[in-house]
Amino acid sequence: MANHSFETLAYELEDGVATITLNRPDKLNAFNTQMMKDLIAVFDVTDADDAVKAVIVTGAGRGFCAGADLSAGGETFDYDKRGGEDQAARQRDGVQRDGGGLVSLRIYDSLKPVIAAVNGPAVGVGVTMQLPMDIRLASTEARFGLVFARRGLNPEAASSWFLPRLVGVQTALEWCYTGRVFSAQEALDRGLVRSLHAPDELLPAARALAREIVENTAPVSIAITRQLIWRMAGAPHPMDAHRADSRGIQIRGAMADAREGVMSFLEKRPPVFPNQVSTDLPDIWPHWDAPEFK
Fold it and tell me: Using one digit for the tens of pLDDT, what is the confidence trace for 85-131?
């Protein structure tokens, strides 16, 4: 298997589960341009590798991600003054694309399930990058903060789309209006995270969840399911879902995975699904780019 090395991330693949670790512990894993590039690149790796059946994202050291790296001081968010070789490449119609948003959109497109294991403080983009991940587990030591208004900014990373869908409009607005840092318990109570764990039990719990997916489900079915659930969160009518999932059932029903799923159940044995995401993922979205969907 290829060795994948990243400047700001650690990457490990074991028994079908890829673990991505934000790896700037001396900076509480603060987000910078290189981390943006590395995160986009690592999800290209996980999507392309059929050995990867599930992905876990966590942080090195005592933090998950302290938000944007503020080492540039007051010019941190001033694209014109900060400059940089990526500036022109990241512009669309004269607007600089938000780096956190590029990461969120890449995670949104992931073909593999993504589990966040939030091991410590997560602030700003440290929270918003989690929102397109599928399931969030948190340490009891974790803290969260959507602090943008306290920094003179607005929410980023497409969080105005993701956050209300996860916690509702009222909670999303309260957290963004106040910009306060809140506890892992509040994150659990309001639906941002799925469960809380003692610090040394967090990664084992995330891995156990990942293993349940890896050992029992068909990767191609998971890829389709992930995109169905996320895309339908913004669909205007259930007919959109009906068109896509009907096409999926028709195509998948004739594939080897469906036969294996039924026969393994009838024969009371673990399934061995033969289809691969890289070669067998069907297109169930032929209607998606039709004029009536624009």
Answer: 565 556 666 678 899 999 999 999 999 999 999 999 999 999 999 99
- Whole-structure pTM over 0.90, yes or no? yes
Return the exposure string of 171-204: e unless at least 16 CB atoms fall within 10 Å of the residue's CB, then b: bbeebbeebebbebebbbebebbbebbeeeebbe
Q: Reduced to 3 states, what is the DSSP secondary structure of residue 122?
A: strand
Domains of the chain listed by start with CATH number: 9-213 (3.90.226.10), 217-293 (1.10.12.10)
DSSP 238-266: HHHHHHHHHHHHHHHHTSHHHHHHHHHHH
Give the model's confidence band at 68: pLDDT under 50 very low, under 70 low, under 90 confident, else very high: confident
At 165, list the tokens. Answer: 């869908």
Report yes or no: 22 and 35 within 8 Å, Cβ to Cβ: yes
d(Cα 28, Cα 47) in Å, to the nearest integer?
27
Longest Cα–Cα distance of the chain, Å, equals 66
Quick one: pLDDT at residue 285?
86
- Structure-block tokens of residue 121: 């403080």
H helices of the chain, in order, are 33-48, 79-82, 99-108, 125-128, 159-167, 169-178, 184-189, 202-216, 219-232, 238-253, 256-266, 277-280
- The pLDDT tens digits of the residues spanning 259-277 come to 999 999 999 999 999 999 9
